[in-house]
Amino acid sequence: MGWEPGQSARMRRRYQHLTDRVLKDTADKVGGLLWTRADQQPPAD
Asked: Considering its fold, how many domains does the chain have in total?
């Protein structure tokens, strides 16, 4: 998949811009599942 040790830095530079957005989206989804109020519906998949 291109994750060989010699190419790690290049792959990290290529996809680094995605990590903040992915982390925030994941945290929002998990937070919505864990801390949904009783009067709210859980987020749809």
From this structure: 1
Which ranges of the chain have pLDDT less than 70? 1-6, 36, 40-43, 45
The gap from C-alpha 31 to its chain's centroid, in whole angstroms, comes to 12
| Owning domain of residue 26 | 7-32
Q: Distance (Å, rounded) from C-alpha 30 to C-alpha 24? A: 10
Q: What is each CA distance from 6 to 3, 14, 18, 32, in whole angstroms? A: 8, 14, 21, 39
pTM of the model: 0.46
What is the Cα–Cα distance from 42 to 10, expressed in whole angstroms? Answer: 39
